[in-house]
Specification:
427 residues, Aspartate Aminotransferase, domain 2, three-stranded antiparallel β-sheet, binds 4'-deoxy-4'-aminopyridoxal-5'-phosphate, Aspartate Aminotransferase, domain 1, seven-stranded mixed β-sheet, binds glutamic acid, single chain, alpha/beta, globular
Length: 427
C-alpha cells in the first residue's frame, strides 16, 4: 500500500536527515540545561553581547507607527544610506539601486543560492549554514581545503586547482572575513590574489562582511575592491549594531549582477514581501553613523579585541593550537596536542569533544565538524560573548581602560569559561 500523502515519506528528499542549525541548537540546549539548574557558560551561539546603540533604538521607537508594506528591495533612503556607508567606511563603490534589503543576510545568502544555478564553494571551515542551504536547494557543495598552518585561509592556488579541473562551470564562492568560526581576516593582497582567480574563472563571489565593522583594529579589506563586477557584498545590523533579532540584512550588487538582484527581488515578492518597516527606518539611522555610533563601534571592537587576545593566549599557554586573531567574536581552538589524553577519556572527534566539555565543565561550544571540518579532528568554535555588554560599554564610557583588570571586572564569566576549558584540556 502506498504511504498516505500526509505522511513523512513525502518529505522533500533534500531535507532527509537535515538537523536544526548547530548555532541555534546549542543555544536551545544551553537554555534547557540552565532551566534544569546547571551552570552553563554560553559560548555556543554567536551573537553580539552589546545593546543596540540608543540613537538607533530611539529611531525604531519613532518609526513604530510606520505600518505599510514597502518595496521588496527596501526603503530607498535606506538603500542610499547603505551605499554611502559602504563607500565611506569600506571604500566600496556602488549605485543606489543595487542594494537588496532582506530579513537577515542569512536569508539573502539562501536566495542567492536559489537564484544562481551553480555549485557552492566554501572554504573548510566556514559558517554552519552555507552548506545546508545548498543542500536544501539541491545544489552541489565543494569544501575547499585550508589548514591551521595558513590560518584557515583559502589560498588562490586551491581555488585555481578546483576551477581549473572543470573550467567554465557556474560557481558561487562564499568568503567570510573576519571569519566565523576562526576570527581570521584576509589582507588586501590576499584578496587581490583570490580575486584574480575568481575573475579568470568567472566565479560569482558573495563576500560575507557581516563582521567587517568588528575587525578589532578597525581595518577594512574587501574582495570587491579587486573584483567589483563579480562580487556581492553582504552586510547587516546583526553583528556590529548588536541587532541580530531585528532580522535585517543587506546585499550590495555591482551593475553587472543587476539580473541576479532582480531575480532575488522577484523571489522576495513571492515570499517575504518586504522587511519590517520600522526596522528599515531605524537601520537608516544606524548606517548614517555619527559620533555616538563611531564611539559605540570603537568601544565594542576594543573590548572584543582585548578579550579575544586574552582568551586566545590562555588557550595557547594551555597547549591548544590557534590561528591568528583579527576580528569578530570567535576562536577556533584545536585540541590535537591533547589527542592521546582525550582518547583515554573516550574523545576521538569534535562532536565528542564539545559534548564532554559541556558535560564536564558546563562550557557550551560547537564542534568543528559543524563548520565542515573532518569529524575526527579535535577542534571547536567558541563565541566569547557571554558577558554583560551594556555594563562593559558603560565602563568604557566612564573612562575605564580596557585591560586585564577590566576583563576581570566586566567579563568574569567568559574568563572563567576559558580557564575551565584550559584546565579541562590539561587535566
Ligand atoms: N554570515 C555569518 C558568517 C554569520 O555568522 C551570520 C550569523 N548570524 C550570518 C551570516 C547571518 O546573519 P544575519 O542573518 O543575522 O544577517
Ligand atoms: N551567526 C551566529 C552564529 O554563528 C548565530 C545566528 C545564526 O546562526 O543565524 O552562531
Amino acid at each position: 500500500m502506498n504511504p498516505s500523502p500526509l505522511s513523512a515519506p513525502h518529505l522533500n528528499p533534500n531535507l532527509l536527515g537535515l538537523m536544526p542549525s548547530a548555532t541555534l541548537a546549542i543555544n536551545e540546549r544551553s537554555n534547557e540545561l540552565i532551566a534544569q539548574g546547571r551552570t552553563i557558560f554560553k559560548l555556543g551561539l554567536g551573537q553580539s553581547p552589546f545593546p543596540v546603540p540608543t540613537v538607533v533604538v530611539d529611531a525604531l521607537r519613532a518609526a513604530a507607527p510606520e505600518k505599510d508594506y514597502l518595496h521588496v528591495r527596501g526603503l530607498r533612503p535606506l538603500r542610499e544610506t547603505v551605499t554611502e556607508f559602504l563607500h565611506r567606511r569600506h571604500g566600496i563603490e556602488r549605485q543606489r539601486r543595487q542594494v537588496l534589503v532582506g530579513p537577515g543576510s542569512k536569508e539573502l545568502i539562501f536566495l542567492t543560492q536559489l537564484a544562481y544555478a551553480g555549485e557552492l564553494l566554501v572554504p573548510s571551515p566556514s559558517w554552519v549554514s552555507y552548506a545546508p542551504q545548498a543542500r536544501i536547494i539541491g545544489r552541489r557543495v565543494r569544501w575547499l581545503p585550508t589548514d591551521l598552518a595558513h590560518d584557515w585561509k583559502l589560498r588562490p592556488e586551491t581555488l585555481e586547482e578546483h576551477c581549473h579541473a572543470a573550467p567554465g562551470l557556474p560557481r558561487l564562492l562564499i568568503l567570510n572575513y573576519p571569519g566565523n568560526p576562526t576570527g581570521v581576516s584576509y589582507t588586501e593582497d590576499e584578496l587581490a590574489a583570490l580575486a584574480a582567480v575568481a575573475r579568470r574563472h568567472q566565479v560569482l563571489v558573495v563576500s560575507d562582511e557581516i563582521y567587517a565593522d568588528l575587525d578589532h583594529s578597525g581595518r577594512t579589506a574587501s574582495i570587491s575592491h579587486h573584483y567589483p563586477e563579480g562580487t556581492i557584498v553582504s552586510t547587516g545590523l546583526s553583528k556590529w549594531c548588536g541587532a541580530g533579532g531585528w532580522r535585517l540584512g543587506l546585499f550590495s550588487f555591482p551593475e553587472e549582477l543587476e539580473w541576479l538582484c532582480a531575480a532575488m527581488a522577484v523571489i522576495g515578492t513571492e515570499t517575504f514581501t518586504s522587511v519590517s518597516t520600522p526596522i528599515q527606518y531605524a537601520a537608516i539611522r544606524a548606517f548614517q553613523g555619527g559620533p555616538e555610533i563611531e564611539q559605540y563601534v570603537a568601544a565594542c571592537r576594543n573590548i572584543l579585541g582585548v578579550l579575544g587576545r586574552h582568551s586566545r593566549s590562555v588557550l595557547i599557554t594551555a597547549g591548544c593550537r590557534l590561528a591568528r586573531l583579527d576580528g569578530a567574536f570567535y576562536l577556533f581552538p584545536d585540541f590535537e596536542p591533547f589527542r592521546e589524553k582525550l582518547a583515554a577519556r573516550g574523545v576521538n572527534g569534535s562532536a565528542a569533544l564539545a559534548e564532554r566539555l559541556l558535560q564536564d565543565t558546563g562550557v557550551a561550544t560547537i564542534p568543528g565538524a559543524a563548520f565542515g571540518r573532518p569529524p575526527g579532528e579535535l577542534n571547536l568554535r567558541l563565541s566569547y560573548v557571554n558577558f554583560d555588554g551594556a555594563a562593559a560599554l558603560a565602563a568604557v564610557a566612564a573612562g575605564e581602560p580596557v585591560d586585564e583588570a577590566f576583563l576581570r571586572r566586566h567579563c568574569p564569566e567568559t574568563l572563567a569559561a576559558i580557564d575551565r576549558m584550559a584546565d579541562w584540556a590539561v587535566a
